[in-house]
Amino acid sequence: MTELTSLILISCYELSFIGRFICKIWRIFFDNSLSTVLTTLETVHEKLIRLNVDGLKKIKNINWISIVIIIVNIMVIIISSTIWIIMQKHMLDIIDMVIIVVLNICQCFCFCEYILLISYMKWMIYIINEQIPERKSCLSTFRDMYLEVIECLHQVNRSIYGVPAIVGFIGANVAEIIFTIYGYLLFPRDYINDPYLVISFIWLLMRTVNVIVLYKIGDATEKEVNRMSLALHQRSLIEKNPRIKRQIKCFFLRRLHEHFHFELYGMCHVNIRQLFSLSNIAIGYLVIQVLFKLNKL
């Protein structure tokens, strides 16, 4: 049991570093694809502006929330990294500490960029869903914009940010949460005066919030995309044109057969149910380890 615990903790520690490298390297390789997605989203946004739809000004609220998240993450990284450097200045070289800090900042920016991008696409889908029952514009126009945004969302989750999100945003964060709780909070090296206690609480809080934010964004986006079926049903009840009714029926049937799931790289579901499952596994492992440790004492 001791060997298994050591192996898991070592794996968690290594995964936290691997995640930071993957976030940076993977992002560089798919920079052109991300530029294409951003260009497509900009085109859709311009179409919404030309259609003069309601609710476009609400994006300002989303931007402010995202900016707050970015600022808080950067401040936490700078403060905790500064304290960590002060504590480790006699044990590590300056170059090693600078590399670790830079990797943490790059991972933070990558995570915030992903959250901003998903929030932006979720907002676009929300605007389209709100406009479909209004009958202010042609249904095919909103359908085409919806399909473009969904394709961008699939591309972002499948290739551009698929692996970094799984390994860096989820795997590395969960690994650091387990490693911090077990190694620095439950069983620290110095039970009376642990110099890492403050940093441990800061990192634990930040990693936990990042995981919760990611799963909440994924769950909210999944629900918003699937709300399209309800918007089409509402439009079909008030539509009088037989041709448009047929379009609604065809698109509605297509939506039923293509129920959207927020997935990363086609294999990792990101919703509240999966977050509860992941939390139960992590908590169960920690409880078993605590009981095992107490029995040894």
UniProtKB/TrEMBL annotation:
Chief place of localization: membrane
Transmembrane segments: 64-86, 98-117, 160-184, 196-218, 275-292
Cell compartments where the protein resides: Cell membrane
One of the record's GO cellular component terms: plasma membrane
Keyword Transmembrane helix applies: yes
A biological-process GO annotation: sensory perception of taste
UniProtKB keywords: Cell membrane, Membrane, Receptor, Transducer, Transmembrane, Transmembrane helix
InterPro entries recorded: 7TM_chemorcpt
UniProt membrane topology term: Multi-pass membrane protein
Pfam family name, one: 7tm_7
Record has Transmembrane as a keyword: yes
Similarity field: Belongs to the insect chemoreceptor superfamily. Gustatory receptor (GR) family.
Task performed by this protein: Gustatory receptor which mediates acceptance or avoidance behavior, depending on its substrates.
Protein name in UniProt: Gustatory receptor
Source organism: Macrosiphum euphorbiae
